[in-house]
């Protein structure tokens, strides 16, 4: 933990005080992709779109200026993990990734053996390029497979096929010993056997981590406007149970709602997120959560790549230069935000962590905890609060209990 020295700019707040700061992660957003998938609601833009396409060198320079501008908010804090997300970060050259990481190391104290993840699309794999990513300092690769079924890959709008997926995994395992595969289930017209086949194929690849997400129709996506025929709720639940059981039998622990890992291979970056740790997000549309002695702040960068890049040439780096939105997390929202994240973890959380990360006493949510326990959605003692199997299955119902009352800060 980091001992707090309160910046003068935040003195005088009446918010609950933190006695120590949580771990700090760094998120780096690369906003471009080869093709926008119909289910994707992330801030991603096709390389060939009308905004002028990918401007790699300019964007690397902008990221470094963004990091420089943000430094006063995180002075002296060690970075425990770095995550390149997108978009498709693997579209960038290894030289660009190396330049970004060199700047990170020069500007921030990076923990020895910090987890450094790069997201990659199977359609962008080249043998030498991924060897060079490893040499640049990437030590964890996350590959967006989604499915090994050619029909489903086509319906999801992916630029790769099943042979590309297998080849990408082969290249990844030649260069990295820590590899995650992203899969999806509940796909258009998917059968239970097809979902089972996908997860068995992923397990056969012998990777350290597998993420399995239920396809949801997010607003502002093509699938939301033109919904495809999806499995009903009962079939989707059966798929989820089959995936969980199959992975458990092969030694993968379901440590978070959608995440499964070999022992010791949990994603440290994401675990910090779920335990209400801090993260500085740089890049177009990136989000941050940063704690100070007496306030917790959330930020969002300018979203459009063109607008974000314009900020980089607007003048000398200063705090707030790249920030589009910023707000302080209110007292009631702190408790809800913590529970919304931590209750996704299968093993729950230590009671003292709630106090440490929110600055609130645990009895500030006593009524909600009592209600959740009465409904058998959590178990608890003086040391730990854990979601039950029912609580994990009906996570939205569990989280609803902790929603702040309207009209209260």
Number of helices, counting only DSSP H or I runs of 4 residues or more: 15
Head-to-tail CA distance between termini: 28 Å
- Contiguous uncertain segments of 5+ residues: 1-13
Largest sheet: number of strands, sense, barrel closure: 9 strands, mixed
- β-strand number: 17
Task: Describe the protein.
By secondary structure, this protein is an alpha/beta fold. 36% of the residues lie in helices and 22% in strands. The chain has 15 helices and 17 strands. The chain has helices at 56-70, 94-107, 127-136, 150-155, 162-175, 192-204, 222-225, 233-249, 268-274, 305-312, 331-342, 351-358, 366-374, 389-393, 395-400; strands spanning 24-30, 32-33, 45-46, 79-86, 110-120, 140-146, 179-185, 209-214, 253-256, 259-261, 278-282, 287-291, 296-301, 323-328, 349-350, 378-380, 384-387. The strands form 4 sheets. A 9-stranded mixed beta sheet has the order 9-10-8-7-6-5-4-1-11, with helices on both faces. A 3-stranded antiparallel beta sheet has the order 12-13-14, with no helix packed on it. A hairpin with a 2-residue loop joins strand 9 (253-256) and strand 10. Helix 1 runs parallel beside helix 2, helix 1 packs across helix 10 (305-312) and helix 3 runs parallel beside helix 5 (162-175). It starts with 23 loop residues before the first strand and ends in a 9-residue tail after the last helix. The relative contact order is 0.13. Residues 1-13 have low confidence and may be disordered.
């Amino acid at each position: 933990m980091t001992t707090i020295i309160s910046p003068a700019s935040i003195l005088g707040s009446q918010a609950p005080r933190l006695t120590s700061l949580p771990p700090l992660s760094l998120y780096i957003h690369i906003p471009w992709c080869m093709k926008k998938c119909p289910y994707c609601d992330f801030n991603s833009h096709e390389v060939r779109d009308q905004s002028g396409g990918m401007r790699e060198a300019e964007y690397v320079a902008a990221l470094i200026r963004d990091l420089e501008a943000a430094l006063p908010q995180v002075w002296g804090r060690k970075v425990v993990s770095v995550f390149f997300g997108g978009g498709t970060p693997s579209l960038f050259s290894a030289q660009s990734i190396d330049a970004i990481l060199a700047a990170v190391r020069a500007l921030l104290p990076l923990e020895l053996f910090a987890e450094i993840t790069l997201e990659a699309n199977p359609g962008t794999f080249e043998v030498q390029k991924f060897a060079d990513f490893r040499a640049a300092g990437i030590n964890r690769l996350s590959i967006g497979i989604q499915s090994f079924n050619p029909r489903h890959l086509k319906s999801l709008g992916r630029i790769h096929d099943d042979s590309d997926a297998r080849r990408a995994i082969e290249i990844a395992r030649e260069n990295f010993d820590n590899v995650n595969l992203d899969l999806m289930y509940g796909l258009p017209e998917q059968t239970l056997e097809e979902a089972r086949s996908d997860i068995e194929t992923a397990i056969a690849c012998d990777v350290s981590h597998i993420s399995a997400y239920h396809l949801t129709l997010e607003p502002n996506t093509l699938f939301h406007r033109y919904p495809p025929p999806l499995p009903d709720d009962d079939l989707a639940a059966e798929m989820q149970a089959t995936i969980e059981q199959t992975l458990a039998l092969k030694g993968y622990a379901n440590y978070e709602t959608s995440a499964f890992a070999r022992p010791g291979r949990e994603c440290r970056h994401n675990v910090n997120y779920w335990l209400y740790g801090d993260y500085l997000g740089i890049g177009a549309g990136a989000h941050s959560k940063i704690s100070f002695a007496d306030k917790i702040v959330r930020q969002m960068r300018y979203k459009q790549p063109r607008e974000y890049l314009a900020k980089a040439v607007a003048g000398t780096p200063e705090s707030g230069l790249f920030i589009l939105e910023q707000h302080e997390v209110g007292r009631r929202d702190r408790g809800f935000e913590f529970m919304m994240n931590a209750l996704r973890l299968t093993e729950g959380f230590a009671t003292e962590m709630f106090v440490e990360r929110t600055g609130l006493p645990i009895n500030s949510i006593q009524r909600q905890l009592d209600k959740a326990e009465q409904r058998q959605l959590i178990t608890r003692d003086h040391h730990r609060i854990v979601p039950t199997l029912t609580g994990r299955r009906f996570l939205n119902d569990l989280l609803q209990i902790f929603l702040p009352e309207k009209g209260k800060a």
